[in-house]
Write a structure and sequence with these properties.
mainly alpha; Endonuclease Iii, domain 2; 2 domains; 55% helix
Amino acid sequence: MVGPARLPVIIRLLDREYGRQEWEPRFPPIDELVFTILSQNTTDVNAGRSLESLKARMPAWEDVAGARVADIADAIRPGGLADTKARYIQEALAGILAGQGSLDLAFLSGMADREAIAWLTRFRGIGVKTASCVLLFSLGRPVMPVDTHVYRVNKRLDFISEGVSRDDAHGLMTAITPAEDVYSFHVNTVTHGRRVCRARNPRCDTCVISALCPSEVFE
């Protein structure tokens, strides 16, 4: 079995290994946006701590939108790259508030996926992955965020060809993944990338999808 025809089988095998992941909102959209910015170049655990610290210091997002960047950076420093992330967060929240009159991103539900991604990525520090996370995790839209694990696993599976950028891979993976499987496939692929299909020393001998992987003998 070759090409995208393998994908439904791979999805089922990953579901069997890690469980079928059923969507439920992780955060409200604006919280998801901030959390995903905070998660850049760090772990979800560190991002979560930074989010809690920021909300403890500034309980309302409107406070963050009007805050000094230095004060935001102090609140999120444990997550790393605090000065850069603070600037991105403040600029995005201030821009959304100025343009929409509120920080409620529910209006994105009325946009097509590409339109919503284009709207979010107008802001500095918000790339396609961050925008896709907001749509998938908060709004339940069938949009595939491509992080380092999703990119690596699907390159090895040959769903993402050499030369395809990570930004372009979002649209590619969204297009070939059945809408009803996007959430579970994303979450399980991240888990698989962390536990088995690692960047170094992938554990092909324990991989449940090795028989369908062109890179199975990976040395």
